[in-house]
Amino acid sequence: MFRFVARSAAGKHLLRRGYATESVPDRKVAVLGAAGGIGQPLALLMKLNPLVSQLALYDIANTPGVAADVSHVNTRSEVAGYVGEEQLGKALEGSDVVIIPAGVPRKPGMTRDDLFNINAGIVKGLCAAIAKYCPNALVNMISNPVNSTVPIAAEVFKKAGTYDEKKLFGVTTLDVVRAKTFYAGKAKVNVADVNVPVVGGHAGITILPLFSQATPKANLAEEDIKALTKRTQDGGTEVVEAKAGKGSATLSMAYAGAIFADACLKGLNGVPDVVECSFVQSTVTELPFFASKVRLGKNGVEEVLGLGPLSDYEKEGLENLKPELKASIEKGIKFANQS
Ligand code: NAI
């Protein structure tokens, strides 16, 4: 374990200026896969988050360097790096939020489901350790295919007797981030004002942006809505192809992951009305897991919000996504119960 503590005068000054740190509770965040393409910028963004007091960076390799580097940033949290399975327990102990971007990313021509064989095993192992060392933590699952890795996590936690459906989240925030960006560009509105719920799952047609509920309202033509929907669904592939074999979205994903983890921390700290979309255990449809707006609170999910009114195009998209999402969920459950 490598521990680094930043206690510079500049850091204290920065905190005092922006936040009443005295009233901010201590919160430990662990990032599993912290030396990866997502993990590194996500570690930096979590280091910038004043709600974090302890930041544990875990990977199977290269975390000492990442932790040393990030630890020099003069913000509140203490940073510790952990490398290799024997240090995983220490990394997890006492965590309030565990973010998981561990695993392999897509290459051109691959679907998220092609990652299943490798990532399912990684996620299963990490979740067994979470059940053992920090069973009360909120788990933010980034590793793909999210439509299957979240059900895998749920099964592992159930077996360990620690499952709490309020504390398991598939991170779909990047779909929301993309939908907001693409909508603002087409509707010519300020992107900072835009809100677009994205529901369903996190792969291809299972990603269903609800542009009929987008604000500010823009009265876009049906063809524009269809093109925006397709671009949001294919946003990940757009990046995979542009990176031409060098991985998938990392920077925008780190941003999205940091937004979602921040929302979880705010909820834990009792900030009211924190709402984000996430892939969670759900009764919004007949599927056991589904992404929709979720109100976050002191125990994680406070309320899974309904879909609201859908356009005919969105109703059709919802029916079309169900068979694929159902199959991905079942695949995850089957894998988790195999061995
Ligand atoms: P990467 O290959 O750059 O980094 C993955 C990291 O995980 C590596 O540092 C690797 O050493 C580590 N790792 C592997 N096995 C591990 C284990 N057992 N324990 C801890 N760490 C382990 O990949 P990248 O680009 O960071 O992507 C990570 C995952 O995030 C992929 O599954 C990718 O598909 C997914 N992803 C999810 C998105 C979402 O919207 N939810 C968006 C983009 C990517």
Describe this structure in words.
- α2 runs parallel beside α3 (63-71), α6 packs across α11 and α7 (173-187) runs antiparallel to α8.
- The protein has helices spanning 9-18, 39-47, 63-71, 88-92, 116-133, 146-160, 173-187, 222-233, 235-243, 251-268, 312-336, and strands at residues 2-4, 28-32, 54-59, 78-83, 97-100, 138-141, 168-170, 198-200, 207-209, 274-281, 289-297, 300-304.
- The protein contains eleven helices and twelve strands.
- The protein folds into two domains: 4-172, Rossmann fold (3-Layer(aba) Sandwich), CATH 3.40.50; 173-331, L-2-Hydroxyisocaproate Dehydrogenase, Chain A, domain 2 (Alpha-Beta Complex), CATH 3.90.110.10.
- With 339 residues, it is of the alpha/beta class.
- α2 links the parallel β2 and β3.
- 43% of the residues lie in helices and 17% in strands.
- The strands form three sheets. It has a seven-stranded mixed sheet, sandwiched between helices.
- The protein binds 1,4-dihydronicotinamide adenine dinucleotide.
- Residues 32-33, 35-39, 59-61, 101-106, 115, 119, 122, 125-126, 142-144, 146, 171, 174, 202, 247-250, 253 line the site of 1,4-dihydronicotinamide adenine dinucleotide.
